[in-house]
Amino acid sequence: MKLSIVVSVYNEEAVLGQFYNELTETLSSLGCGQEILFVDDGSSDGSAALLDGMVKNDKRVRVIHFSRNFGHEAAMIAGIDHASGDAIVCMDSDLQNPPQLLPRLMELCHEGYDIVTMTRNERADGGHAKHITSTLFYRLINRMSDTKMQPNASDFFMVSARVAEVLRIDYRERTRFLRGLIQTVGFRTTTLSYSAPQRAAGSSHYNLGKLASLAFTSIASFSKAPLKLGIYSALGFGVLSLLLIAYSVVMWIVDRPVGGYTTLIIFLSAFAAIVLLVLGIIGYYIGLLLDEAKGRPIYIIESIRGDGKVDCK
Residue 113 in contact with residue 189, Cβ under 8 Å? Predict the structure, then answer.
């Protein structure tokens, strides 16, 4: 059996050496064929040079250099596209996905599992706030989507070769949430919990804005529920209008006319806010459809070190 490790790298010069040492130390205890695929997602620091140096010193290492930064999701799917292992493990290079868990993942693979989702039961760098926001996100998406996901699932996971083939052929969305997609494929699946340690060096590349964007993209990828907001809003404002009409008629009958200016302004302001929100949601979904219709590449490869290939997909 051959194991492929797919590692997304973006400006991780400070931690790459330590990650490689811990990874190779763990891999030395596994009695199987191995390949390590680093995907350089357009790094602007010295990450690319470090990765090329690893290629020269370790025949297991291959490095895929993107022509620019395409994002973490694109880097993972590129690694899966080029992996040749019977089992493929995706992980980050910041050491928050412990390489020491690889032997357990291989045990689960030998037991016949095609997908192993890794869930964080705690995280040393996030504190209580990140745990709460992550829990709320998964509760929200599970409530809005027909596909139920494992809470606190991470981008650290294992898939078998046949699951990888499904991802290569059938799941080619330009906007994707890979940790969610693998949970829709089927096959035999299990979950492994772990504690995410502190980043070994550097800082997270996700700020609040990027996390919010990822959350909404994830919801849009798996649910059409936000599009129903217009229907629910119309029903709500219809009921409110009937109540206002009834109230106004009663006040007219008892000769106590209702002052209409304030009521009208509040009603119109709320209505305009809801309309603009619904239009924004519709526009976002249309934007996703436009990206799919354009059919532009998910990623573009500048070069691959380790096997001499140059590719564009």
Answer: yes
Residue 132 corresponds to which amino acid? Answer: I
Indicate the SS3 state at residue 5. Answer: strand
| List of the chain residues with pLDDT < 70 | 122-131, 198-212, 255-263, 307-313
Which residue's entry shows tokens 């290569």? 168
- Region of 306 (left: φ > 0; alpha: ψ -120 to 50; beta: rest) is left
Q: So where are the chain's domains?
A: 2-223+297-305, 225-294
CA distance 2 to 115: 16
Could you tell me whether strands 153-160 and 87-92 are parallel, antiparallel, or unpaired per DSSP bridges? antiparallel
Q: Is 61 helix (H, G, I), strand (E, B) or coil?
A: strand
Q: What is the pLDDT of residues 200-210, one digit of tens each?
A: 565 555 556 66
Tokens encoding 196: 């995410």
Instruction: Judge residue 180's burial from the number of C-beta atoms within 10 Å of its C-beta, 0-12 exposed, 13-18 middle, 19 or more buried.
Output: buried
- What 3-state class would DSSP assign to 228? helix
CATH superfamily, region 2-223+297-305: Spore Coat Polysaccharide Biosynthesis Protein SpsA; Chain A (3.90.550.10)
**Residue 28: predicted pLDDT:** 86
Q: Which token pair is 243?
A: 């109540």
Under a CB-based contact definition with an 8 Å cutoff, are residues 6 and 80 in contact?
Answer: yes
